[in-house]
Amino acid sequence: MTDDATTAAGATGTLGYEQARDELIEVVRSLEAGGTTLEESLALWERGEELAKVCRHWLEGARARLDAALAGPADDQENGETAVDND
After folding, report:
1. Sequence-ordered strand ranges (E) for 1-87
2. Among candidates 69, 64, 66, 58, which has minimal Cα distance to 17?
3. pLDDT at site 72
4. How many CB atoms lie within 10 A of CB 39?
5. Cα–Cα distances in angstroms (integers) from residue 61 to residues 8, 48, 49, 67, in the given order
6. Is residue 23 packed enough to be buried (19+ CB in 10 Å), middle (13-18) or exposed (0-12)?
7. What is the DSSP letter of 18?
8. Is residue 30 within 8 Å of residue 44, measured between CB atoms?
9. Contact, 48 vs 38, CB < 8 A?
10. C-alpha 10, offset from chain centre
11. HSE of 32 in the Cβ direction (CA atoms, 13 Å)?
12. pLDDT in tens, 16-67
């Protein structure tokens, strides 16, 4: 992915999980490498926090979908209901 694609995705607020994760990895590497000013480090930290929130949002959404998929059919069967296809 190019820096332009990352910038464009970040500007629109539509970062996908993989994009946010990959950028977060780079932020962590930059912080671990050191050699940045305090202001640069703070900016990297803040960006990392934003990216972590994006990743957390995606993961929570995935977890909710999995929980719903796993719970859905079992709940219907426990209530004596059967799935009906209305097509």
Report:
1. none
2. 58
3. 77
4. 8
5. 23, 20, 18, 10
6. buried
7. H
8. yes
9. no
10. 13
11. 6
12. 999 999 999 999 999 999 999 999 999 999 999 999 999 999 999 999 999 9
The pLDDT of residue 14: 85
How crowded is the C-beta side of 25, counted as CA atoms within 13 Å? 6
Q: Return the structure tokens found at 8.
A: 């464009």
Using N-to-C axis directions, what is the helix angle for 38-78 and 17-33, rounded to 10°? 150
Beta-carbon contacts of residue 59 (< 8 Å; ≥ 6 apart): 17
Per residue in 49-73, is it b (16+ CB within 10 Å) or e — as a string? Answer: ebbeebbeebeeeeeeeeeeeeeee
